[in-house]
Design a protein that fits this description.
Strand content: over 45%
Number of strands: 6
Distance between the termini: 25 Å
Number of helices: 2
Strand order of the largest sheet: 5-4-3-2-1-6
Radius of gyration: 12 Å
Order of helices and strands: HEEEEEHE
Length: about 80
């Protein structure tokens, strides 16, 4: 599951873009931190209250996902199911 998540995450552009998930529209921003050793993704639902926030750390031991105050399953499902507009 983590390998699929990382592949889907890496396929997203490092910019702000519009996307859809579960029939809803979002504005998504993916950015690099610490010279690319960490990345952040934030998504806000347009016209709704859903919010997604996560940090992905690239460690020597492998990727470490840290959702921000939400279940890991929620951010994984979001990234895997996201489609760009």
């Amino acid at each position: 599951m983590m390998a699929d998540f990382v592949a889907a995450f890496d396929a997203l552009p490092a910019e702000t873009f519009k996307a859809r998930y579960d029939g809803r529209s979002y504005v998504v921003t993916k950015s690099a931190l610490s010279k690319g050793k960490a990345q952040k993704l934030v998504a806000e639902e347009l016209g709704g209250s859903d919010y997604i926030s996560l940090n992905l750390y690239r460690l020597a031991s492998g990727p470490l996902l840290k959702p921000c105050e939400m279940p890991e399953a929620k951010v994984i499902a979001f990234v895997l199911g996201l489609t760009r507009d």
